[in-house]
Amino acid sequence: MPLFDLPLERLREYRPERDEPADFDDFWARTLAEAAALDLAPVFTPYEIPLPAVEVFDVSFAGWDGHRINGWFVVPKADGPVPCVVQYIGYSGGRGFPHDHLAWPAAGYAVLVVDTRGQGGANINAPGATADPHGGGSPQAPGMMTRGILAPEDYYYRRVFTDAVRAVDVAAAHPAVDGGRIVVSGGSQGGGIAQAVAALRGEVRAALVDVPFLTHFRRAVEITGRDPYQEIVRFLATQRGSADQVFRTLSYFDGLNFAARGRVPALYSVALMDDVCPPSTVFAAYNHWQGPKEIAVWPWNNHEGGGGFQKEEQFRYLHKLLSDR
Amino acid sequence: MPLFDLPLERLREYRPERDEPADFDDFWARTLAEAAALDLAPVFTPYEIPLPAVEVFDVSFAGWDGHRINGWFVVPKADGPVPCVVQYIGYSGGRGFPHDHLAWPAAGYAVLVVDTRGQGGANINAPGATADPHGGGSPQAPGMMTRGILAPEDYYYRRVFTDAVRAVDVAAAHPAVDGGRIVVSGGSQGGGIAQAVAALRGEVRAALVDVPFLTHFRRAVEITGRDPYQEIVRFLATQRGSADQVFRTLSYFDGLNFAARGRVPALYSVALMDDVCPPSTVFAAYNHWQGPKEIAVWPWNNHEGGGGFQKEEQFRYLHKLLSDR
Amino acid sequence: MPLFDLPLERLREYRPERDEPADFDDFWARTLAEAAALDLAPVFTPYEIPLPAVEVFDVSFAGWDGHRINGWFVVPKADGPVPCVVQYIGYSGGRGFPHDHLAWPAAGYAVLVVDTRGQGGANINAPGATADPHGGGSPQAPGMMTRGILAPEDYYYRRVFTDAVRAVDVAAAHPAVDGGRIVVSGGSQGGGIAQAVAALRGEVRAALVDVPFLTHFRRAVEITGRDPYQEIVRFLATQRGSADQVFRTLSYFDGLNFAARGRVPALYSVALMDDVCPPSTVFAAYNHWQGPKEIAVWPWNNHEGGGGFQKEEQFRYLHKLLSDR
Amino acid sequence: MPLFDLPLERLREYRPERDEPADFDDFWARTLAEAAALDLAPVFTPYEIPLPAVEVFDVSFAGWDGHRINGWFVVPKADGPVPCVVQYIGYSGGRGFPHDHLAWPAAGYAVLVVDTRGQGGANINAPGATADPHGGGSPQAPGMMTRGILAPEDYYYRRVFTDAVRAVDVAAAHPAVDGGRIVVSGGSQGGGIAQAVAALRGEVRAALVDVPFLTHFRRAVEITGRDPYQEIVRFLATQRGSADQVFRTLSYFDGLNFAARGRVPALYSVALMDDVCPPSTVFAAYNHWQGPKEIAVWPWNNHEGGGGFQKEEQFRYLHKLLSDR
Amino acid sequence: MPLFDLPLERLREYRPERDEPADFDDFWARTLAEAAALDLAPVFTPYEIPLPAVEVFDVSFAGWDGHRINGWFVVPKADGPVPCVVQYIGYSGGRGFPHDHLAWPAAGYAVLVVDTRGQGGANINAPGATADPHGGGSPQAPGMMTRGILAPEDYYYRRVFTDAVRAVDVAAAHPAVDGGRIVVSGGSQGGGIAQAVAALRGEVRAALVDVPFLTHFRRAVEITGRDPYQEIVRFLATQRGSADQVFRTLSYFDGLNFAARGRVPALYSVALMDDVCPPSTVFAAYNHWQGPKEIAVWPWNNHEGGGGFQKEEQFRYLHKLLSDR
Amino acid sequence: MPLFDLPLERLREYRPERDEPADFDDFWARTLAEAAALDLAPVFTPYEIPLPAVEVFDVSFAGWDGHRINGWFVVPKADGPVPCVVQYIGYSGGRGFPHDHLAWPAAGYAVLVVDTRGQGGANINAPGATADPHGGGSPQAPGMMTRGILAPEDYYYRRVFTDAVRAVDVAAAHPAVDGGRIVVSGGSQGGGIAQAVAALRGEVRAALVDVPFLTHFRRAVEITGRDPYQEIVRFLATQRGSADQVFRTLSYFDGLNFAARGRVPALYSVALMDDVCPPSTVFAAYNHWQGPKEIAVWPWNNHEGGGGFQKEEQFRYLHKLLSDR
Description:
The structure is a homohexamer.
Chain A: H1 8-11, H2 24-36, E1 43-46, E2 54-62, E3 68-76, E4 82-87, H3 103-106, E5 110-114, H4 156-173, E6 177-187, H5 189-200, E7 206-210, H6 217-223, H7 229-238, H8 243-251, H9 255-259, E8 266-271, H10 279-288, E9 293-298, H11 307-324
Parallel strand pairs in A: 4-5, 4-6, 6-7, 7-8, 8-9
Antiparallel strand pairs in A: 1-2, 2-3, 3-5
């Protein structure tokens, strides 16, 4: 992959105008309030697997409109409450297997891995277990990007972000968790979700945002030819005349607008050869972020971003951050 | 594309055992009865387009669970009721444009083109206008093949086939249509739908079934590596342990079981180099069909089947059939 | 497909210098005069197909050097002469089937669909029926772009454009046609041909030019990596030293030079993500067009351009234009 | 490439029925007689290139219908007449450069490299210089395989084989050549041509036939999905109903029918993983060959066949054969 | 991926003849004895990473010819010696990161992850850290499959298997490990290595062999067109005449010959749509295995095999096996 | 391929800063001195092949560290010493066959074709015969670009360039060669090698450098997405943190630094659509070259560059140059 986006020195200063609807905060306040009116109804079912170092639970809770959202909750055997990482997942994937999520417990944290509704049906490495019972209000491109995209109320990610915010509540309410030390985390779609949740739930302690997707849609769809952003282009190419409506919807979900509301400590990462989530879209959000922030730049990588190296950065970052408090 | 399936002489005799659930007829009787309890509520809105030879209507009606299904109704200017072709659509497509559907009117028939719910969101040649508001009961592979595949009640095609049967009612009820001369028609997915509707609505006058999809699933997923049958394989590869449940669901929707109930005249077509809907899956259905039948064999074609040649066959076939009655 | 060409605001003003040979007009005058010396010898053979709303004729006429050119002529049953659309075809395709061309008749126009000589031999959706008995004067790249490209007299499109001009005469001479209301139309290659014919036969009433090919060759071969423009690049890469000769030939066929002679009303379309016929090549011609003109810009589309939406635009455009006269 | 055709032990015995038209010999006698009525008119133009070991001539002669066919004639500086290899070329290629053809001269032979008319326009390694002024009698698939395929008289390879036979005459007439020691040679298309010429000009001393194309068409188009055989399939898929006519034409050009008339010594080669010219089509011809014969089997190769190894085999084979006489 | 290999019922009985050199056991005895003469020289360097549940060591030891082999050793904090899983790695990958290997420690085992020399240089998810200082005795195809393939003494996998056997010694010698409960494990290339080590080090307690590579070479190279087996085919296609020598070399490394010497309990897995390591090659080894054995069959999967599901099987299998002893 | 690099007028002036290590000359002096301490030990074994115009020798000599390097030496039968072209080979290829190298002998030169160690194992057209017994000091990406890339002393091309310099000595020492008229030559990798050797062995008479690889690494890896430059990117993406070390190593091998030391006459070639060795990287070197120089610009070609046309240029160039002296 050659370099194709802005050079690094311009990326560091790239802070574009945001397209923010006047009722952005109202929209989310209303959405979350409606959700809050429903009982969270978390269920933690012990999962039988011979992994004595941890306790594993098959979790479900009531997400948007009460739909059941599934996840894994893995907690190290400890004497008292531990901090918890709420982990969101990259596009197409599901929660996978409990043994995929042993790093945070080994580091001393509980981890709550949250399914992205409807996803994980065809990802051999990360099966999911959660339906999206709401099919959307228009035809859609295959994939999830355009499900319900003609209205913010109906857009798929309204349900996903609501589920994700409530997952923080699920984590916070568990007796093994220290509710004051919840961290949201994810890469790609998971990074976009974590970024949004950190803005919507300012109480979280930190956000780990890797190569975030769902961010700076307008530029993304114009400069990359790859999925999943191209799902939107295929929809626009077919459902002509819908562009204004589509971009209006997306403005309620754009990571730029969440980043501008992010006030907690954040560790970002970006890859300069990433043509799935181009570096300018990531820096655009990072440069709008309001809280204390750091960004790891991976100059030779595509969308894999920092991979395991970034994970080690995160262990060290949280270790320092949570020890310091 | 080389030849890859059985040789033609064996195809002509290929009539495999069917896997039919005991309550197949009950399931469909119940499904259609539930639907019938809802008002059809058809709306025919005149569509402004300078095509003086025909009248064009933007149609909608209440499909499964009352969801609004859209279509085009194009009718030649005539002195009395005309026969009507109800046209179903190939996978991923939507109803397209009225001017795409002028052949049947030029031949003297009304045509009702029926959206396939949720499809047509990313097909630049055939945009659709109909949502599938039901999202299914499990995660899914991108596309529609596995939406709700873990239970027959919840499977996507239960809704689609119900919509399709009700479209016949919509056509029959229109004053410009001679309700005794309704023909169902389609290619690929549309052929699978037409095949099912002809079995479920024995009152239709004929079925035109081209290179049908949704037929002989078990063999199809084992011998072709192409989509959309592979959507099912990707789901099975991910959602392991679900195969029995998946194939049980599919047995309620398998074209083989509808073909065995088909008693109206049918004109099939099949292509011997078709690796999307392999010829053995088509002949399997054709050889089970109970009514008067003919099949056009296209030896050098892939999934395009007979294309425009087949369409001319259909004009002639219907012309003869409907004149004879 | 990402955006890759000039931004829209610059496209609107992009009007490059043209490379026009001094004897451009002479060349075409001479070519058409030679052709005019041959009897047009049109033959209209009724085609048996049960489409009672129209009359269908299998047409042939003497094109360049008297070679027989085939087409379909489809005319609505009407009381007097009707306007006629002469339709040219996209690269690789042939005239297809009569039932593919029922939209203009339904709109009240006759339509003459003209084969592009030698094409349509391997396009499953649009078979052709016309040979190009002249093989050209040099080796060629597979495809038609470089057949005879070393001399304007010998170039394939000299024959094609001549055939196309004469098709207008064929239409005009038919008793069912109102010769004062002939419109030329086409997309891609067909758009390039229509553009040329409108310049060469100023008597036509209008031109419908969609995402035209054969236009601004010099830029096209440098900015797109896709066929068919790349056929020329492969020839240049092989037949080195021929570039001056090749571009000299092309200057007699370049849509820019025809556009600069276009004086009839024209409706263009262009797609901003079109990497087959890049938008700057289309705007270059449009900005040179001399007559009354409009252009539909499709921002999210590739070479499919406006598709059926554009077709609806054309119905409305002609309806208005031809009613107004 | 995995093995995909018959196992070697069955290949060695594979000698299928041939489909031979009754007037096969008449057809070719008539064709060659008509050609013989035209003056061969060879022109040998010295080519300036500092290669002192050889003399290089840019050759042309009158091929089918008098069309000028080009080639290179490279002859070692020698005291008397030398044997000559007439070399035919693989599909898409042209005669290339004189310095590509120095191996036979270094081995003591003159070499006449014969352009395949119309080819070599887009093969960067082997440009050609010869037109096919005859464009054929029907539309064609891109490439040369279907040019004029609806009638034997009009088929492209009638012209090519005639050119190729006359090239032997050109070689034989040159004073530097010993006309009793002319060998025909080629790989792929060139092998198919050499095979035909050896049957049509029984006076040649030997044939070197590598992985021959144009042989056992019927089986080839059914078992391989690759070009150029697939050009025929695409034509059949489009020009439906033409199959009988197409296979009748091909029967006049099928290597099986030439092989059955081959009486001179022949050295064949075949590759067991060749999915361009499948091994069964090669063995089918080899097993029909009537003269003394040997075949080199390359078990792990695709269409590259024996490559340079086979060339060394040929040096040794001819060295022995021509020394022995 | 369609099914392409033998049907399951035949796979269960497929036990082909093996091609075993007479001195197979001598070769390996000599190879391992030479290696044993060198000091193992293990170095365990604590690795600083805030993962308090485990101890992490960056390991190196002297492999074949004393070359330094690197790995990770991760051990749960425990009161006494624990069993240890020695983990080998799939083709192209390296040891990755310590946090990738926390599942076995969470299950109560130490894990020693062993680099495959020379690999891991371009696998973004699993970087390696170990060179192969021996470059081989002939040119090679890119990749590792043909490095030194012309002689068993020189073949790459002689070094790899020797490293792998010695890794068991490294594990056994560590004070935290119960040397009587060492299990070898791996998938694909790692499965092939584990299979070999279990035969060569009969003292290991069990082998976990997933979709093993390096097994039944002769059939594999003939039925699959995918890498890495195709590296061998490309070599054979180029280095002609070397096939006997190559297959002789491979006979010393073929999993079939190791399986026939496998006497410890083994848990295999196989995927029926695996076209990288075709199921017949896996069953061939499994059916030759001499010890107690089980095999998990994944009917809908390609080379991902059982994925995380298989991992859970392994937790349960070892839990039972090691508790039972 | 569209144009993608700088426009020609800027290319002609593009002369970037070079990144040259202070001890560049020392490094190479030391390397070559160490090599010179080893006996060259050339062996010329006559090769039996019936090519009477030339003498063919299978050559080997002691390259870096005494490793045996193989090649072909082909010499025309002549009365006295002849000039000699030392030919280096493109990436992945080996020396091929003697009959591939008859052009220089036909032109009156001896030719020494030098294997590139380790390459030619999987190039069906150009098998090699030379091992690289040194495997490098770190894991590597498949291919040769990153073998030993972490240290200049250990880098693969240190061995290759040393072999290449010594090949000049081998040629010069042969009695059939006029040691004062040795020319180095090659395309792509071979061009990079020739460029380096011309700088390191200022005694050569000229350099023929076609579309050179291994030149201006820093820019190349950023602007092209194709192999082999991308081998380096994949390594950097995996072995993170190694970039400084990698680029330091490469600075000892970068064609820019050799070009700046080139003082002999040089004939370069460059292709403007070359996305393997982008034109700016070639012009960068050419513009740094110190000696008399010419460059052939191929505007429409990709990495095939000038092909046979360039070869003819070279015959003429050397003919003039060597006659003039």
